[in-house]
Design a protein that fits this description.
heterodimer, A: alpha+beta, 2 domains, five-stranded antiparallel sheet, 5 helices, 21% strand, B: alpha/beta, Nucleotidyltransferase, domain 5, 10 helices
Chain lengths: 197, 326
């Protein structure tokens, strides 16, 4: 059963040997030339699977990796709610989100699309999902971009909570936040919060 | 109720005249660019020398005189200061001489609005691609302004292609000459960077320019790969924004909207999502006066009060601060 059509991939619900799972398949994009398209889909699938496995081993909550094929990943289904869809006070979750992002960054994982739409709440615990644009990279700028994306997606107060817990868990937070300020100073990066729409 | 528009933000001096839905004239005079680029003061001199003639030929083509013009619009920014000043001063002089309302217009907004107008779109998502800009935008009803969903983190796609063209010593150092060189090329791997709905081009440009030094690599393969990679990045970000906003119309505007390949790729996305795709003919994609006249006309018909004392220039006039009049 298809549960979502993303820009990046389609996601299906499935069940293997009694285990609820979801299958994420990177669909062919007709606008791209085939060579580039195959390459992007294959590489991203590989990297995503690797990052899921690594994050799990670092003790970060992510959907458990079950199977990997050329363009598809099968992972455990988490029956939670997206942080972006939770009404009411999300401060406690934003605090945890800061800790988790710090842990990812300490292990040189940049998420690439770190917004409340990619954080799932299950049993009051956070799971980071959709590592489709993630990279294993020791880059201060990529890490700063993760924070910038989050900043644009939440309120100013929420961001204050998020960043103070991030500072506690991220080892290189001084450098990364310095970079964040630099990025925002570049003319093009003025505040662009999705909250204002 | 003819309205005159003056565009002078960059290398093109544009004078356009619109009357209701009819584009009466759209004159464009382009500064001859050498491989040294543009020196702003020389550009301003060029524009001021040509302004009177361009105005006269636009009026002649429309069979109108200045007395038939009921309002005037000019580009306030973003753009090169000295060039913008020529447009602003000419517009102010005309407004005072003929006692007509004068409106200052955001250049990027005009690019979007002309595509929305000509395609009869209500609420489209836009990919705005030009020399200095590469942005994905949609209308924000709460603010009556366009919201930028994604944009380039460094340089505009047009600048990227022009820079490559210069490095490759193409005679006409333009994006279109890169497209010509790219014909019959085959793909070589290039760095591909999309961050959500944003993207960067400098890494890709540096990579491609370095490849030019390698005599064993075919130049046309490099041009082809550069173009395919950059356009695919734009398309991926656009598709993501489309799925986020769930808009039913997709428009492309700006100078790089002249690219046949980029339009074909976006059309492909629009077809897949079963939404409308719209663009305009090239004279309205390139910088032009008609688009400025169109926005000025909308302001006039919305009863916006003109104040000549506020008619200055702003080299860094962001589109998301410009009020939209539908």
């Amino acid at each position: 059963m298809r549960i979502s059509n993303g820009a990046e991939a389609n996601v299906y619900r499935s069940n293997i040997l009694g285990i609820d799972c979801i299958v994420k398949v990177r669909q062919k994009k007709l606008y791209r030339i085939q060579f580039l398209d195959d390459q992007i889909r294959e590489q991203r699938t590989k990297i995503e699977a690797r990052i899921l496995a690594l994050s799990h081993s670092y003790g970060i909550n992510v959907p458990p990796l079950l199977l990997v094929s050329k363009y598809g990943i099968t992972m455990g289904f988490i029956n939670g709610k997206l942080l972006s869809e939770i009404d009411g006070n999300t401060n406690v979750y934003l605090k945890d989100a800061g800790i988790l992002l710090g842990m990812l960054h300490n292990n040189n994982i940049a998420h690439g699309d770190f917004t409340p739409a990619n954080i799932m709440v299950f049993n009051k615990e956070l799971f980071i999902i959709d590592f489709g644009l993630s990279e294993i990279i020791d880059s201060v700028e990529q890490k700063a971009l993760d924070i910038l994306l989050m900043k644009r997606s939440i309120s100013q107060k929420g961001f204050g909570i998020f960043i103070s817990s991030y500072k506690k868990s991220s080892k290189a937070h001084k450098l990364i936040i310095k970079k964040l300020n630099e990025l925002e100073m570049r003319g093009r990066y003025q505040q662009r919060s999705l909250q204002n729409i | 109720m003819a309205v005159l528009g003056i565009e002078s933000s960059a290398h093109t001096l544009g004078i356009g005249i619109i009357d209701g839905d009819r584009f009466l004239s759209n004159k464009r005079i382009m500064f001859p660019i050498t491989n040294n680029g543009i020196i702003p003061s020389e550009l301003a001199e060029f524009h001021s020398k040509n302004a009177a003639n361009a105005l006269k030929s636009a009026l002649d083509e429309s069979s109108l005189s200045m007395r038939d013009i009921s309002a005037i619009g000019y580009t306030k920014g973003p753009g090169l200061g000295p060039a913008l000043n020529v447009g602003a001063i000419s517009a102010k002089a005309l407004a005072l001489r003929y006692k007509i309302p004068i409106y200052s217009i955001n250049h990027a907004l005009a690019h979007l609005e002309i595509v929305r107008h000509i395609n009869n779109f209500d609420d489209p998502l836009f990919l705005y691609v030009s020399g200095g800009n590469s942005q994905i935008l949609g209308f924000n009803e709460k603010k009556d302004k366009y919201h930028i969903y994604g944009e380039t983190f460094d340089i505009g796609i047009g600048n990227m292609l022009d820079n490559f063209a210069r490095a490759a010593k193409l005679i006409h150092a333009w994006g279109s000459s890169v497209a010509t060189l790219a014909e019959n090329g085959s793909y070589i791997q290039m760095p591909y960077t999309v961050k959500g709905m944003d993207f960067t081009f400098t890494g890709l440009l540096t990579h491609a320019v370095k490849m030019l030094d390698n005599p064993t690599i075919n130049k046309s393969d490099i041009a082809y790969s550069l173009q395919e990679t950059a356009f695919s990045m734009l398309c991926e970000a656009t598709e993501r924004a489309l799925m986020l906003t769930k808009k039913k119309e997709l428009g492309i505007c700006g100078g790089v909207a002249q690219s046949v390949r980029l339009k074909a790729m976006l059309k492909c996305i629009a077809d897949e999502h079963k939404i409308k795709f719209g663009f305009v003919e090239n004279q309205f994609n390139a910088d032009n006066g008609a688009m400025i006249a169109l926005v000025a006309q909308k302001m006039l018909s919305n009863g916006v009060i003109s104040n000549i004392n506020d008619c200055n220039i702003n080299q860094r006039f962001r589109i998301d601060t410009a009020r939209v009049y539908k």
